[in-house]
Amino acid sequence: MTSLHLTSGSPCPPLQDGKVRIYAMRFCPYAQRALLTSAAKNVETDIVWINLKDKPEWLVEKSPGGKVPSVEIGDGRIVYESLIIADYFDDAYPEPNLHSKDPVSKAVDRILVEGWGKAGSPFYQLAFVGSVDAEKVPELIKEFEGVVSTYSKELEKRGTKFFSGDERPGMLDYMIWPWFERRPVIPMFFPDAANWDEIRQNSAAIDQWYNRMKEDPAVAKYFVTPEIHHRYCITVKEGNIDFDMLTKV
Q1: Run of H or E including 163
Q2: What sequence ranges are listed for the domain GST N-terminal (predicted)?
Q3: In this structure, what CATH number is given to the domain that contains residue 60?
Q4: Known catalytic residues?
Q5: 110 Cβ contact partners less than 8 Å away, ≥ 6 residues apart
Q6: Using one digit for the tens of pLDDT, what is the confidence trace for 147-198?
Q7: In whole angstroms, what is the distance from residue 200 CA to residue 186 CA?
Q8: pTM to 2 decimals?
């Protein structure tokens, strides 16, 4: 695993025998999906961090469009897009199963994974845009937390510790987790823009889930504290992104 994010002019590290290469960015929630599922499946990985503002020239050979995450198998084949990578790991490494074996339950969870996309735009504007209109902030918070509340109610309806059941997290849990790990940065940026106590009351089930997820070994392996996420988001808002922040902590 490289410790720093590689930039233009950096050579591509050689593949390591017996390991699956993951091209990622340490603070990218989509890349975190690949990291979480590989860890949950106990896959031997070699992670190469990529500076997305000054990308190595060879990245387009490893990921069309120059995006992360991307996975390179030992025989040189490439798999990219976070949800497809997650499915690849679940299919290629049978245990433990992350998708439900029940076709209907699996389909419902896939719908919920796709539905989570509604939270992406308001979260991005709140966490990463430096010049977001102050008058729009309460509505953006309402939009984002409205999606969160929907998932909290779904978990409450299921009556289980995780979306996948009581035993351990499953695919849906891991696919939405990266945004919940970053969720605390919003009240850190906008402490007076919403009634946060009321919001927490409306998402009690998901807040309990959050605390359980932090104890999961795969989540704990790549967990970044809200304080560090907040510091990273500040560098994004200010236009001076610090990809290598964790090497200085």
Answers
A1: none
A2: 18-97
A3: 3.40.30.10
A4: 28
A5: none
A6: 999 999 999 999 999 999 999 999 999 999 999 999 999 999 999 999 999 9
A7: 13
A8: 0.96
